[in-house]
Amino acid sequence: MLDHNYVGKKLPPIRYRVEAGKIRELALAIGDDNPLFHDRAAAQAAGYPDMVAPLTFPTLFRFWGGSAVGAETRSLLQQMGADVLRILHGEEEYEYFRLLHPGDEITGELEIVSIERKEGSSGPMDLVKTQATYRNQHGEPVVIARTTMVVRW
Amino acid sequence: MALVYEHIRVGDPLPALTKPAITAEQLVRYSGASGDFNPIHTVHQAGVAAGHNGVIAHGMLIMGFVAQMITNWVRPEQVRRFGVRFTGISRPGDVITVTGRVVEKFEAEGEKRVRCEVEAVDQSGHRKLKGEFVAAFPAETTAS
């Protein structure tokens, strides 16, 4: 099972600049045609200062906001002894404080908050819970992200 | 035309959303957009090695479908909290339908809020995730 000494460990700081192109790219990949996510003029006509990011946009922070794209959470779990092919996403939760717009400079730290052993139907598994509070360039909280990864053995 | 708290009732269904079938191309696009390059989403052999018979969709893509349903219903700034538990794997070809319903109306932090349950199922009725969100609503007296 995973080493409990990793509880409390923080990953290297995350920095991410929100860009209009990435907002639209995510909306296109999801197939979400809400004009707020595609067009600045449409967002302004709806009363926003600029385009708005979709609700699941904060997932980009941990994948694109580290030094190695997409690799850091995975490499930490690998370092802890997990097989990357046997990691599944268990839960995801966001608590929102502000909308995300292009130009926002996001910073945050991802911390491992708990590791819990469970007996699943296909054998033992470890639930690894992480949490990050993301803030903007003014130091204001934007979103808290809580993630549970499932490491199967 | 904005939804008003007084007009929302516990038990009300939310407008459902059925997505076009997931495609392998979409998983490549979602990997690039999100930055999640785990090969189980894009490389057939990696999906097989992981015991899935091929590539599987990112859970966050399915959560993105649910998010689309939510922001078809309310404006993004109304959403206070949104969480899901992934309960099943999705593959290319799966047609996902997102449904939801209002389960609670309450006041917190000086706001009128609504809690809704949501779920995503495929064409065979297999559930992919279950979750809930909380949205704040203007009251009738203050709505413009």
Structure characteristics:
heterodimer; A: alpha+beta; two-stranded antiparallel sheet; 4 helices; 35% strand; B: 144 residues; alpha+beta
How would you describe what is shown here?
The complex is a heterodimer of chains A (153) and B (144). Chain A is an alpha+beta fold and 153 residues long. Chain A is 20% helix and 35% strand. Chain A contains four helices and six strands; from the N terminus they run E-H-H-H-H-E-E-E-E-E. In chain A, a hairpin with a 2-residue loop joins strand 4 and strand 5 (123-135). Chain B has 144 residues and is an alpha+beta fold. Chain B has a five-stranded antiparallel beta sheet, covered by helices on one side. The longest helix of chain B is centred in the middle third of the chain and has 15 residues, at 59-73. The chains are: A alpha+beta (153), B alpha+beta (144). Chains A and B meet through helix 1, helix 3 and strand 2 of A and helix 1, helix 3 and strand 2 of B.
Summarize the structure.
Chain A is an alpha+beta fold and about 150 residues long.
